[in-house]
Amino acid sequence: MTRKFYINTALLILTILAPFIFPVWKTQLATLWLFIIVALTWDMTGGQMGYNSLGNIFFYGTGMYVCAIIAIGMYFPFGEWTDASRSETWKFTDSQYFTGLILGSLGAGVFCALCAYILGGLFFGLRGPYFAIGTLGLAIATGEIVSNIDWLGGGQGVSMPIYNGDFETFKNIIYYLFAGLGVSLFIFLNWFYKTRFGAAINAIRDDEEKAEAMGIHTLRYKLITWSISAFFIGVAGAISAFQLIHFEPLETAYQTINLGIFMVVCVLLGGKGTLWGPVIGAFMFHVFKEVTWNYFLGWQWVALGALIVVIVVFFQDGLMGYLQTRFPEWFGIKVVDKDEKEIIAEPAE
Q1: pTM
Q2: Are 269 and 281 in contact (CB under 8 A)?
């Protein structure tokens, strides 16, 4: 067995035992997995395919609302549930709660994937900064529209069903849902990027015109990639809806200036276009965020802005790009001199 196998096994065991090793940090650990998920999904299009989206938060917020509609609407009239003037008190049984959680999450993922496939036909006609601005406009506009629809709760948002059991058990459930989704996404991407499909989206990133000239149906690859990304982030949004219990359209669901920016910063910090970069970047950013939000309250946005400036100016390839340049043998890269006569660095065993 290789060293890589032992490292991955140790990380998996740590993931399973983390809520018991760090019981007071269960919520923070769940948030860390959320950051990992949204960073990995953003990197699918932004890092691997070269289409930098600023509107992936659209799928996160939409996943919240679709999950709420399914989970609540299966048992109670959704419009009456979100009516601020209602006097009825409805309570979910354990069976109803978990059924709504599972079906709502799956439904949210499928709906967001369909949205990405349909909207992609419009937005992938844009490139570069126009694509980024267009997707950002989609997220902002959707948040404003949803906040004015009374059936969806309007500006007051939606209150989700409440878990009837112990609160610590509830936090464990949320953690393992996020962790299970994150691990599944990582394993999927580890395989996905090694396929011909992964090579095709990398070709789109490197030179889309040449990829088309080689016979690659670029639009089809872009639509499928964005749809897969939207599925996972939609499921993450659904789990977040149950975790938060109550969410609002602008401050929570379609939070473009918070999570919408955080997912991009995580990827830039760790390294675009790499499998481990978004994971490492999410971990580093989460630690940075927790420290600044707890000990530098009032200056946290200044610190975040400074971090973004440092990354963009000095570490444009992120931590993984920096390490690959300094220690190529760690990543299985064979380096030779310009005449290809002398081996400078060999892949590590």
Answers
A1: 0.91
A2: yes
